[in-house]
Amino acid sequence: MNNKKGLKPVSSFSLAVLEEASPELKREIEKRYWSSVSDQKHADAFPREKYQAGVDFVMMFLTSFLKYGDPSLMEDQLEWSRDRLPQDNFSLEEIQRSFKIISKVFQDLLPEKVWSELNPYLTWMIERQQEVYAGDES
Amino acid sequence: MKNRYAKGILENLDPMAVKLAGDSLPYTKLAAAYLEALLSGNRLAAVELIESEVSGGMPIQDVYLYIFQRTQQEVGRLWQVNQITVAQEHYCSAATQLVMSLLYPRIFTGERNGLRAVATSVGGELHEIGIRMVADFLEMEGWDTYYLGANAPVDTVLEALLERQADLLAVSATMTFHLPQVENMIDQLRQDEYGGRIPILVGGRPFTIAPDVWQQVGADGTAADAREAVQAAAKLVERNKNYE
After folding, report:
1. pTM of the full predicted structure?
2. ipTM for this prediction
């Protein structure tokens, strides 16, 4: 049964593949993120360890979202990130950029079958993120 | 000396200084004064405010729901928007747990109903005030509770259930990403003969914002707050007895 946003449940096979690939995905996300940071001031203000912890955190709540499928779980985290992360010198633009990197890394590293199941969730997450950050919480 | 530390807080309270969810709820002014005492680092004043109200007849359940729960939520929000530090947040939580402990002589006195519950936060979860409130509410309803605190491993929970011959397990998770741990805990408990037949009540933020998730993790019920948890616990135990 699809959830209230029309997202189909993710299979246990895909969740297991994601879990196993998680360390590699995280390493790649961090690598791509830092290689794309051009603003030295941002790099100085936001230590790599903090970004690493942030990626761990995102992967954990993303896994919960994919496993249980309720968009409210993700919306809650999006609102939290909007309120909190800029206070920790991590701007909304950087969060949005990171989410896009996460999505691209998933697409590049996960098997096609798995990616096709996760893609609608990541697409929804990124679109909803833009709405939440723009102040639309409907 | 009565109200030595809290003197003036209620009278001089700036209603704009703190913002509490649910303005129409009872005791808003007291909740604001309590929060102001905590945020100013004056836990003795916080203790006095509560002691004074409870001595005057305020039900402890109301203190928990309208003062502790609301102020804890606001403390979390203030940290989230960077209005207070992590240290202040921890201070407020520790102070509230202190005040809760001071109320225990009044909580652990009622007639017992013969029911036993184990209460815990799931492994990895460090937030514990919510589940402690549930345990205390059950205690006030006559249950004998065995509160394990935060971050309890599954084998410890099972041991406690067996040792106490519990009628109910109450499990809390605050962080969304601890849902798989809740599911895993329930799954492991269900594989045990005793754990397999005990009703499991879950609660915490992810279950409140996603109202169907309690079923997905394999629990028998959920509750939005400690008062609801007492009602849900009674129903689950009753239903379980009818099955046996």
Report:
1. 0.89
2. 0.86
